[in-house]
Structures are given as C-alpha cells and as structure tokens.
C-alpha cells in the first residue's frame, strides 16, 4: 500500500513569507507526527496528532509554527514569517496509534529560506 | 522530559567486522525503543525496535539489547557490508498528558563500512 507522502518535496521561499507543508499519512493511521531535521542533525519533534485528542504542540519552536489535521487524515504545517533558521527538512510520520506503535516516515519537504 | 544520548557520533569499520552503537535514556517510564537507518537524502527507515518486556531482539545481522536498570540500549550489526553505511538513530518514546506519543531521538551515528 501507499506510504506516507509529503508535498512539496522542495520549497524555496524568501524570508518573511509564509509557507504550507502537506502530509498524507498511511490510510488508517490515527497518529500523525511532524519532525524537523536540520542539515547533518538529528530529528527534532514538533507536534503530533492522535485521533480527536488535542494535539501535543510542545515541540513547536515559536508561535510562527502551527499545524492542523483535517478529518483525521491530511495535515498541514504552516510557518509564518519564515526566517533563515527555519531552513531544514520537515518530516512527517504516521502510526496506527501511539503507545509504542511503529512510526513510518514520509520523504520530507526540504525548506530553504533565502 | 525524556532525553536520549547516542554514542559514538561517527563509526568506521572494515567490511565484515561488527558495529555497536549505544544509547541511554532518562525516563524510566519509556518502554519502546526503535532504531532508524537514514541513507543520504532518504527518509529514516525503521530497522528494528524493542519493547521493555524483552532484553534482546534479533533480525538477521541486526540485534538490539536493552538494559532497563541502567537505562541503556544498543544496536549491534554483525558482518557489516558497505550497504550498511548510513546514519543510524536511536529513539525512545516520550509522554504527553499521561499517554505516549512522539519519539525522542538521539543525535545519530554516522556508520562507514570500508570495503
């Protein structure tokens, strides 16, 4: 079956612009996660959604970052007034649930802020 | 919250040798520990995971061991091959609002296998 998909694969934007990144999780997966990976670095947790529960936003680095998940499926990560330090690969993952369910990653969106 | 430390940051071995990567975690309530392999420019791929009710798990040339008392777990790759060259990440599961959720990752180990 289809894995996690993300779009766009690459995004170049100018400092100060807003961007939207999209994630389509594996069908039937109730949990969805966003992580950020800066060049040569590890994966930094941003936010996760589980079913209809309130999302865990504890990893969002500033109030310029927000995310929503419509209909329990597709998610959009929005970064407002982008800064150069926002340049990174943004990875989405999904799992059947939480509590130790296996997480599968999408290919990521490479964001470059000029 | 949970914190995961990973060592070494780089590891170079000869083809056919074994490689060991070690991680420690801080939250004794964590009970799920996956390992991901990430090749250059690719997404992280889950290669093996272990839950706290077992001490060791093997899958062909890959094994993971867990010491709950010491709060550390390790990845063992035997008979390494050039295609094992990649960055490996360990992770532990974090908690939010009384339930488990996101993964907390180590900073990664760049493994190079020389032919």
Give your account of this protein's structure.
- The complex is a heterodimer of chains A (114) and B (115).
- With 114 residues, chain A is an all-beta fold.
- Helix content of chain A is 0%, strand content 46%.
- Chain A has no helices and 10 strands.
- In chain A, strands 2, 4, 5, 8, 9 and 10 form a 6-stranded mixed sheet that branches. A 4-stranded antiparallel sheet of chain A has the order 1-3-7-6, with no helix packed on it.
- In chain A, β6 and β7 form a beta hairpin.
- The radius of gyration of chain A is 13 Å and the shape is globular.
- The model of chain A has no long low-confidence stretch (mean pLDDT 92).
- Chain B is mainly beta.
- Chain B has no helices and 11 strands.
- In chain B, strands 2, 4, 5, 9, 10 and 11 form a 6-stranded mixed sheet that branches.
- In chain B, a hairpin with a 4-residue loop joins β7 and β8.
- The radius of gyration of chain B is 14 Å and the shape is globular.
- The termini of chain B are far apart.
- The mean pLDDT of chain B is 92.
- Classes of the chains: A mainly beta (114), B mainly beta (115).
Total helix count of chain B? 0
**Quick one: overall form of chain A?**
globular
Mind describing the biggest β-sheet of chain B? Answer: 6 strands, mixed
Globally, the shape of chain B reads globular
Q: Level of helix content of chain A? A: under 10%
The share of residues in helices of chain B is under 10%
What's the end-to-end separation of chain B, in Å?
A: 41 Å
Biggest sheet statistics of chain A: 6 strands, mixed
Q: How many beta-strand elements of chain A?
A: 10
Radius of gyration of chain B, in angstroms, nearest whole number: 14 Å
Encode the helix/strand succession of chain B as letters.
EEEEEEEEEEE
Query: Which residues of chain A sit in consecutive blocks of at least 5 with pLDDT less than 50?
Result: none
């Amino acid at each position: 079956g289809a894995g996690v998909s993300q779009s766009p694969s690459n995004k170049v934007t100018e400092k100060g612009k807003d961007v939207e990144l999209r994630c389509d999780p594996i069908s039937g997966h109730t949990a969805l996660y966003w992580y950020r990976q800066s060049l040569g670095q590890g994966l930094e947790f941003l936010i996760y959604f589980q079913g209809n529960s309130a999302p865990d936003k504890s990893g969002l680095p500033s109030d310029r970052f927000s995310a929503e998940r419509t209909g329990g499926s597709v998610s959009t990560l929005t970064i407002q007034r982008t800064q150069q330090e926002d340049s990174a690969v943004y990875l989405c993952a999904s799992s059947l649930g939480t509590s130790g369910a296996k997480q599968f990653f999408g290919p990521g969106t490479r964001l470059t802020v000029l | 919250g949970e914190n995961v430390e990973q060592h070494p940051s780089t590891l170079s071995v000869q083809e056919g040798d074994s490689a060991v990567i070690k991680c420690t975690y801080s939250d004794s309530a964590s009970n799920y520990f996956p390992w991901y392999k990430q090749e250059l420019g690719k997404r992280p791929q889950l290669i093996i995971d272990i839950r706290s009710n077992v001490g060791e798990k093997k899958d062909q040339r890959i094994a993971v061991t867990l010491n709950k008392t010491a709060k550390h777990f390790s990845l063992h790759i035997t008979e390494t091959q050039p295609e094992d060259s990649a960055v490996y990440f360990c992770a532990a599961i974090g908690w939010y609002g009384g339930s488990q959720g996101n993964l907390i990752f180590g900073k990664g180990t760049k493994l190079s296998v020389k032919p």
